[in-house]
Write a structure and sequence with these properties.
about 220 residues; alpha/beta; six-stranded parallel β-sheet; 6 strands; about 50% helix; elongated
C-alpha cells in the first residue's frame, strides 16, 4: 500500500449501522470512508464509480444477497477486497462468503480495533477471520470442496439430493427427521445460493450433476447437523 488512505465503502441496509460505521472510519488514521450503499445494486454502482480498496459488506441486504454482491464485486473488481461484517456466526455463511470471494469475515459487535485490523489486513492482501472464526475456518473451507455445489452445507446438499429423487418436502422432513419448516428453509437457501428460480430448476441442476439417481442405494438415516 502507498501512503494514501485506505478507501472504504460501507454496504448495509440499516442506516443507523452505516452512519455508525462511517463515523468510526472517520476516526481511524489512514482510513477514509468514500461512500455508503444500502443494497447490492447500489453497492455495485458505488464501487464502480469510487474504486475503493475495501468494501465492508453485510450479508443481509434488502434487495439482493450480500453473498451474491460479494461474488459480483470479486468478479468485476478483483482489486477490491471485501470484508464481511455481519451478525451471522454460522458455518454456512462463513464458507459461502469466503468462497464468493470475501477476504475477511468479522462479526457485528466486534471492537473498533478488530474492525480496523480487518480493514488493514484485507487491504494488505491477508485473509482475516475475526474472533473464534479462524479456529474452524480451515476445516470448513476444505470440506467437500471437490464435490458438486461446494457452496452448500452438508444438510443442504442432502436435501437437494432427495429433491432430485423426487421427494416432496413432507417426505424429506420425515426421511431426515426434520420439521417441515426446516426443510422449507433449506430449499430456500439452496435456491438462493445456486441462483435458481424454482424447485424444478434445482432438481434439474442436481440431476445434471449426477444427484438423485433412482437406482442409488437408500441413504442411511442422516447424522448431518
Amino acid at each position: 500500500m502507498t501512503d494514501r488512505p485506505i478507501r472504504v465503502v460501507v454496504v448495509d441496509d440499516h442506516p443507523v449501522f452505516r452512519l455508525g460505521m462511517s463515523a468510526l472510519l472517520d476516526t481511524l488514521d489512514g482510513i477514509e470512508c468514500v461512500g455508503e450503499a444500502a443494497d447490492a445494486s447500489e453497492a455495485r454502482a458505488l464501487v464502480g464509480s469510487t474504486r475503493p480498496d475495501v468494501v465492508l459488506m453485510d450479508l443481509h441486504l434488502g434487495p439482493g444477497s450480500g453473498i451474491e454482491a460479494t461474488r459480483a464485486l470479486s468478479r468485476d473488481h478483483p482489486e477490491v477486497r471485501v470484508l464481511v461484517v455481519t451478525m451471522l456466526n454460522d458455518d454456512a455463511s462463513l464458507v459461502a462468503a469466503v468462497r464468493a470471494g470475501a477476504r475477511g469475515y468479522v462479526l457485528k459487535g466486534a471492537s473498533a480495533a478488530d474492525v480496523e485490523r480487518g480493514i488493514r489486513g484485507v487491504a494488505g492482501g491477508d485473509l482475516v477471520l475475526g474472533g473464534p472464526l479462524a479456529d474452524r475456518a480451515a476445516a470448513l473451507l476444505g470440506a467437500r470442496a471437490d464435490g458438486p455445489f461446494p457452496e452448500l452445507t452438508d444438510r443442504e446438499r442432502e436435501v437437494l439430493g432427495l429433491l432430485a429423487r423426487g421427494l416432496s418436502n413432507p417426505l424429506i422432513a420425515h426421511r431426515l427427521g426434520l420439521s417441515a419448516k426446516t426443510v422449507r428453509n433449506n430449499v430456500s437457501a439452496i435456491l438462493v445460493k445456486l441462483r435458481l428460480g424454482s424447485r424444478a430448476e434445482a432438481i434439474a441442476r442436481a440431476r445434471d450433476h449426477g444427484m438423485g439417481n433412482p437406482n442409488a442405494a437408500e441413504l442411511p438415516p442422516s447424522s448431518a447437523r
